[in-house]
Amino acid sequence: MAGPSESRRVADALRAAILGGELADGARLPSLAALVREYGVTTDVARHAIAALRAERLVVTRHGAGAYVSRFTPITRRSPARLSRDGWGQGQAIQDHDTGPRPRTVDIVVSEIRAPEMIAVALGVRVGQKVLSRSRRFLVEDRPVQLSTSFLPLSLARGTPIVYTDTGPGGLYARLADIGHAPARFVEVVNARAPHPDEREALELPTTTGLVFEITRRAYDDADRCVEVNQMVLDTTAYTLEYRFPA
Fold it and tell me: pTM above 0.85?
């Protein structure tokens, strides 16, 4: 059975080619079949080698198109500054704080779903009661990096721009402020775990990728009512989490 040393040997050779300029930025790496022939290894070994380089942020994988050299600069997600009212209150998108001018696209699906227990308890509604779901898939420089789904009580969202795919300047939190429920405090919980199959597909993660960041955020208004639960899944190879707070 192939051991880690074999995938390391393939990864070392490809890394040397990338860092030495033999494989330039944007160049397509040899296919798995080509790596199997060249290095005399199994497909799983070749796949592990590519995954290792992706984790090192030297290559990106594109679903159905192979792997390409890309020196992807990790996104620094700075908290709590990114959630400051000074940003969204002035019409700035939270993601602008993370990515700045880097090219970014987002796929958005808005729907009504029946609240599972965790969401229902947090929002103070009955289990199974309908709530608004805002599901987003963020891509930076054409690379999927984050999945994010916000859940809100329909009693707050209905009849407001919150039900639209484009909520307007400042995003969701600015619209909550417009109706008198501006977030006054946030609670975020961060865990690391293996991605679920649908998350792996949506983020275009290789089958050997180990972990994603799972971040659950609750937003509370001045009355200490939870007005949003946001469940996020981040590609760990695309993000650096940075927290700054006074001593």
Answer: no
